[in-house]
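Next comes a single protein record:
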Amino acid sequence: MNPIPRAGKKGPTADRLREIGVRETARVLSLLSDLLRRLPREHAGWDRICRAASSAPDPDLFFLNLSRWFDSLPGPFLKRVFAREDLLPLIGALLGGSEFIPEQIARRPEIFEFLFLEDGVLRRPGPAALGKEALAAADRCTTEEELKADLRRMKHREVARIAARDLSGVAPLPEVTEDLSRLASAALEGAIRFSRRALDARLGAPVAVGPDGTRLPARFVVMGMGKLGALELNFSSDIDILYLYETDQGGTEGVEPSVSLHEYFVRLGEAITRIVSEATEDGFVFRVDLRLRPEGTRGELANSLRSAEIYYESWGQTWERAALIKARPVAGDLSLGEEFLRSVVPFVYRKYLDFTAIEEIKGMKDRINLAAARSLRSDRDVKLGLGGIREIEFFAQAHQLIYGGREPALRRRGTVETISALSKMGIVTEEERDRLAASYDFLRRLEHRIQAHRERQTHVLPQREEDLSRLARAMRLPDPPALLSALDRHAATVHGIYARLFGGARQEETPGIPGEVQALFLHGRAAEDAPSLLARLGFRDIEAARRNLEVLRDGPPHVRIPQRARHYLDKIGPEILHRVAKSPDPDLALAHVERFLSAIGARTMFYALLYEKPKVIEALVRLFGSSRFLSGFLLRHPELLDTFLRTDLSPLGKSKSDLRAGLSAALTGCEDFEQELDELRRFKNLETLRIGIHDMAGSLSLEEGMFQLSALAEVLLSHALLLAIREVRRRFGVAMEAATGAEAFFCVLGMGKLGSEELSYHSDLDILFLYSGPGESAPEPGRNGGDFRKLSNHEYFAKVAQRLISILTTSTREGIVYRLDTRLRPSGNAGPLVSSLEAFERYHEESAHLWERQALLKCRFVAGDRDFGKRVEQKVRGFIYERPLPPNAAEEIHRLRMRMEQELGREREDRLNLKVGRGGVVDVEFAVQYLQLLHGGSHPAVRARGTLRALYELQRAGIVTLEQYKVLDEGYRFLRSLDVRLRLAHDASIDSFDPQWLEPERLDRYRKDTDGIRKVYLELLGLP
């Protein structure tokens, strides 16, 4: 940059300002108008001001900040400062390189006085000076608020001093980063001193009890991690710290009641964090990040030395080894910190690395590459971008992790000193060492100039031309092209060396998994842009998604999963999140993933199972994002996953014989009645899960899905009846029929959708109980009749029915099997639970209403004595079809239909009912059933129990036109499919729903189909 000649007596004219580099001369002259009145253009002081501006990175910003200073600071202060040639470069760099720091100085004249009148900017404090100042403040202050204010004043003063020296080029990079780190240590020392005094007064002094009974003050240390530990802080760094105390043996003394050392030091950590990081009217000292502590955000705020050692020895991960490389005691009892560092040396620096550790280091590199690839597609990031600061740091750390166990010379904290040690070992050449060191210096200084401008936590190169010009001049380069060229040159140098690590690794995203997903799995801390990434992936509740993502990334809370399980989770986590983002409801899916991982806990087998079967992840996430109902099975019983997956997602369909065989095998190993009850429920849950997953995948037609659910219910009902009869026989023997002297028969009749084999998820089972005839029970042949008690057959079979109901409906830890509904029995709830065949016949011949005759259309034998059941079916057909319908049958059926619509449907604008609402499922069923009652006597083919089959036969017989058939068939299929979807999604039997649950196209289809169904329904019943 060419020097600007002296101004002579011309002062700041527009031409003069343009020579200096001012872009907006009119604006600057306006800013200086008041100053021009106090200091005429001919005044010699303007020469020094213009020369200071000429050295500024941004002359426009220089004059803007200068006008603020003249408005806020005493005039004599400014005259004295601008009279000194040695201060002009520092003032120019500060006023023209930062908006934030000159503003802080304008608000605090004492900082200006210290820096420029007392020459504070020209010197560095001694290593212990700031610590002494902070301790003195802690001793002097009587309230926490006073200390906060003092520490923040110290911070603003020191940051201004460090920034002025840095921006002007007076201070080399190591001085800048070390001074910022010493400032953080000093603030922590002051916070410890004050907080311990306050806590001692409230809780008592902490005393550690040694193995020999000695009692000494308990020690405490703050460990600096990351850049703080390595003395490499930047202007906007968080400080990564751990709180450690000496031992858990002991407690507080001097105040009652005493508290444990753990409670005391957790309170101390909370106070330190609050003093240093809480935002007040003076800002904060440093943001505090405690996420690198054992177990991260789930772990204790403060840990004893031994608990930390055990954690790292037993559960520490590779990224935590990397984090501890830079660890350094920064405040408190430094000797305790050194003890801790000695104890974790075997964990950090292993003499031998296993395959998993090498793979994890490679994985860390891949994630860094991913971040770099992502930055290339958007902003120029000097930290995370290709060839950025992160690559230099990881290059050094990776070699420390690999070789540090055998080469103590590599156990360094600083990045540049580690690279020098690598050069001495021959891992990098001297030329590569020098180039890496020069690039690190360039990138870190550029990072500081980006951050010092507005004190923002960013590493991204700005895009505006004037910002790039400011940065170029701050870096002693002529213009933006020169800056970008230098940045590209250093980035290419760094990446060329870094890429050799492990012989190179992928720089792009894992195929099929977007970068947004992979970026969320950076270890050590969540991606800084996690909220925006999650929003882009389709999540609505961002805070909940972040909490659930933490479990997917780090494992279940309060569970320390084994290293192998951790390895599998690291591998499958991005794939799971990718699938979650593509699911129908990402928020629901991720919430279910979190619950599932929490349920499986630390069991490595499950993680391995998911890792080895990628297709399972696809099926599982589809289930988690679509069905609360099916997800509930796995969330309550994750062990179902293993059983389910070992059959390779199970066959699409199973016959009743297959189901009976499977259930019999499951029950064979049961040792008692309670186990049998649980096994019935487990079998039902597993089979429902199988059917539901195939249903959701679109692999089952509507009829296949209904049949599978109905067959499952029939098989479970049959086995439950066998158990019920067995239990009743043990006490009451065998029921004998008086008329024949033979054993009496018993059967269960399925009604409603069980009878027609049209069950859906969450369906109740409508059933009737019949026995063959009167009589009484007798002891079982060959059994001791000592406990036998005689019952009439009616009492006997009532107990069987009651036992069956109990077996199926009692809630155990595995849930229930089914809910049962017996209200379709003769006389409904007013009638007996079981009926003899004779009573059943008499009722339907003499007393049954039309709606009961209509209900018998679905009646089917489902359990008990098959021959007896088939005999009942034959009689039922006679009740239905061998008598004429009453002349007002259509009107009576319609009256019942309208009553259901009004009393049960209760539809309104925001609530529809797909079952009993206008044009709903019941419209189709009632229309078909009316025609079956009317024509079934002369057309046996239309007697089919299933609605769709009966409708088809009615059309074949010419009773229903083809057009009417299509309206009812398509509408019924649509409504029942929608019913299945809603039941699976909401984990409930949902007939009534909010129209907003449906997509616009599906809602339009719903309204069109229900209108058509109602029109045909009225036509078929012959009603207007």
About this structure: The first helix runs from residue 14 to 20. The first strand starts at residue 205 and ends at 209. The mean pLDDT is 88.
